Amino acid sequence: MERRTPVFIICSPRPRVGKTLLARACAEFFRSEKRPVTAFDVNPDQFALVDYLPAYTAVASIGDIRGQMALFDQLIAGDHVPKIVDLGHGLFDPFFTLVQELDFVREARRNAVAPMVLFLADPDRRTRQGYDMLRNRFPDLALVPVLN
Amino acid sequence: MAKPAVILVGADKGGVGKTTVSRTLLDYLVAHNLPVRAFDTESPKGTLRRFHPDITDVVDITSTSDQMKIFDTLSSTDSQITVIDVRAGLLSTTLRALRDIGFLEAAKKNQLTLAVFHILGPSVASLDEIAETAGFMTDASYFLVKNFINNTTFFEWDPATYNSYFKKIKDANEITIPKLNEMACEQVELASVPFVSFVANKGQDGQPVSYSFVLRGYVRHWLGNVWAEFDCVKLVDIVAPEAQRKGAARQA
């Protein structure tokens, strides 16, 4: 069976729910297994993940096409290196709009890349709306609620 | 033999996106499995030919021998549809020549189909051409194409000016070409391949290449929107009605 490259997109439309904590836990898991890993800190306000794991983390932006290329062209690479995206809450909607416009999920499948959304769940209304949006817009995308 | 169709893409102004629209049309028709050939009238160089070399010939549309090469072969060629990317400044001249050789009359008698894509530029002079061109369009499908690839507004901010042009021609359809990201546009230029090949990550000989996924995504999204415009005006129905009927029968 073909080995696929995992991409974990860690997100929530709400701040302070534990996204960066989960991203750190994921990255450190792969490091503890002596496996390579690449993380992307996509937080326009405060870059936290890069402070914790500077050796494996790149700061990324989706505000312009060069930043989008730097991020997505790596996420789509079927190089067997797990990728972790720590997505700031303010970029939740623009990021997934881009994912849809670029047809990221289909292209990922074609390149043997397995994207998975780790969605930090909480009782807030905005969180429920965000979760519903992902389910409706990306029925083929693995969506895992994470209770922190 | 299916009824031949000719699609003229032109403007009397340069740099408004004629070749870009021609390229989207060729991609669209090929994607619908319609037999198509193209003529690039930017003689002797030819920009369209750079992107679609297998189906494009460069011609001088003002020369009688090249006019014969295009129009005398309409019924004998395997390609039911002929797309002509008319050089800047020659749209009216070409239409006049078509009238003089009886081509417009043949369209009137329903012996062939003529569609004209008039690409508009952001100037009053360009809009003035609408009235001039429309005079030839009584028996053709006439499309006014607003090309937003260079961010023009077509005087929409001034309703009097806008309406005086765009509302005047009764039977004209409007087509909007949305803006394509500059970097994506330039990357396709550099690659010199059809938009569809760029999206599919293929080079000039069909070999796999590695264009940016993001740029390909932008082109795919943009091309989808352009094709949706062609779907809206039922372009396949106009230029290849029998293919449309066969497709519908297959679906049934």
What is the strand and helix layout of this fold?
The complex is a heterodimer of chains A (148) and B (252).
Chain A: E1 5-11, H1 19-32, E2 38-42, H2 49-52, E3 57-59, H3 65-75, E4 83-87, H4 92-101, H5 104-110, E5 113-121, H6 125-137, E6 142-147
Chain B: E1 5-10, H1 18-31, E2 36-40, H2 48-51, E3 56-58, H3 64-71, E4 81-85, H4 91-100, H5 103-108, E5 113-120, H6 124-134, E6 141-147, H7 159-166, E7 173-177, H8 182-191, H9 195-199, H10 213-232, H11 235-239, H12 241-251
Parallel strand pairs in B: 1-4, 1-5, 2-3, 2-4, 5-6, 6-7
List keywords for this structure.
heterodimer; A: 148 residues; alpha/beta; Rossmann fold; 6-stranded parallel sheet; 6 helices; 6 strands; globular; B: 252 residues; 7-stranded parallel sheet; 12 helices; 44% helix; 15% strand
What would you note in describing this structure?
The complex is a heterodimer of chains A (148) and B (252). By secondary structure, chain A is an alpha/beta fold. Chain A has one domain (5-147): P-loop containing nucleotide triphosphate hydrolases (Rossmann fold, 3-Layer(aba) Sandwich). Helices cover 40% and strands 24% of the residues of chain A. Chain A contains 6 helices and 6 strands. Chain A has a 6-stranded parallel beta sheet with strand order 3-2-4-1-5-6, with helices on both faces. In chain A, α2 (49-52) links the parallel β2 (38-42) and β3. The longest helix of chain A is centred in the first third of the chain and has 14 residues, at 19-32. Chain A is globular. The termini of chain A are far apart. With 252 residues, chain B is of the alpha/beta class. Chain B has one domain: P-loop containing nucleotide triphosphate hydrolases (Rossmann fold, 3-Layer(aba) Sandwich), CATH 3.40.50. Chain B is built from 12 helices and 7 strands. Chain B has helices at 18-31, 48-51, 64-71, 91-100, 103-108, 124-134, 159-166, 182-191, 195-199, 213-232, 235-239, 241-251; strands at residues 5-10, 36-40, 56-58, 81-85, 113-120, 141-147, 173-177. Chain B has a 7-stranded parallel beta sheet, with helices on both faces. In chain B, β6, α7 and β7 form a beta-alpha-beta unit. In chain B, α8 (182-191) crosses α10 (213-232). Chain B is globular, with a radius of gyration of 18 Å. The two termini of chain B are 24 Å apart. The mean pLDDT of chain B is 87. Chain A binds chain B through residues 65-66, 68-69, 72-73, 76, 101-104, 107, and chain B through 181, 183-184, 212-215, 217-218, 220-221.
